[in-house]
Design brief:
This protein has about 260 residues and is α/β, with parallel strands linked by helices. It contains eleven helices and five strands; from the N terminus they run βαβαβαβαβααααααα. A five-stranded parallel beta sheet has the order 2-1-3-4-5, with helices on both faces. It is elongated, with a radius of gyration of 20 Å.
């Protein structure tokens, strides 16, 4: 089977031995391609945005990295991705309350590592079976055969914008992020209306409020994010007198970057 036909998997797991087992078994698998493994929930979110996997295997308890599985699920849910991977939780946590929280936050399937039939082989087999079933039920994905959960009506633009905003530290919890995302999408699609007014109408606020929130989100990112990261992911010149991009500079930079 060509690698393009395989299920593209991200593993979020803090046990090095389990990571190695996934790496080995996926290297031998005709169904699953392991894109990357991490023990960090924050990096897991970044990988979902940038790598666009078909599936994620998620451990809920990640003491060696940043965040945990619940944080990961909550963040992915808040982003409201158009391309959402199938999320399989594999955990030592046996609390029914915790499992229900995970389900409410978007976990598609939960396996406890203490159950008698648990193994990495079982997880990979389950993924292959479930995702093959979804493909058969809903038809092939648009143009990209590996993306078994993505439909013809969806595209990657919003996810690409989210990835860029994530790179420079624009927090999903800041309301200005949603406004920036929408503004970049509108401009990148070649439209030149009164962007702030359109966004204000969508969210039931004012144009001035939209503009203030967008600039505040940018200012906060430039204050909190490491300068080396900002210079790596935002390569446009920044006015040294201001020290941060204006909203217009920021939005048009990313609109052009994504078009190109």
């Amino acid at each position: 089977m060509d690698f393009k036909d395989k299920i593209k998997l991200i593993l979020i797991e803090d046990d090095p031995e389990i990571q190695e087992e996934y790496m080995f078994l996926c290297s031998q698998s005709s169904n699953v391609l392991l894109i990357e493994a991490t023990d960090d929930a924050d990096k897991g979110v970044h990988l979902v945005l940038t790598k666009q996997p078909d599936a994620v295997v998620l451990d809920l308890e990640l003491p060696n990295g940043n965040g945990n599985g619940i944080v990961f699920l909550s963040t992915i849910r808040e982003m409201n991705l158009r391309r959402r991977p199938f999320i399989l939780v594999a955990t030592n946590n046996i609390s029914p309350t915790t499992h229900q929280i995970a389900r409410n936050l978007g976990a598609d399937f939960i396996i406890t590592k203490t159950q008698p039939d648990y193994s990495v082989e079982m997880v990979l087999g389950l993924l292959a079976g479930v995702l093959a079933g979804l493909t058969a039920a809903h038809g092939p994905a648009r143009q990209r055969r590996g993306a078994v959960l993505w439909t013809e009506s969806e595209d990657s633009l919003i996810d690409r914008i989210n990835a860029e905003l994530d790179n420079v530290g624009i927090s999903p919890k800041h309301k200005g992020r949603a406004y920036l995302r929408d503004a970049i999408e509108i401009i990148s699609r070649g439209k030149r209306p009164n962007v702030s007014r359109l966004i204000a109408e969508k969210y039931g606020t004012t144009s001035a409020g939209v503009e203030r929130a967008m600039q505040h989100a940018i200012d906060r990112a430039w204050k909190l994010t490491d300068i080396d990261i900002l210079e790596r992911f935002y390569t446009a010149r920044v006015n040294p007198g201001k020290g941060v991009p204006t909203t217009t500079e920021f939005v048009y930079y990313y609109a052009e970057k994504l078009k190109n």
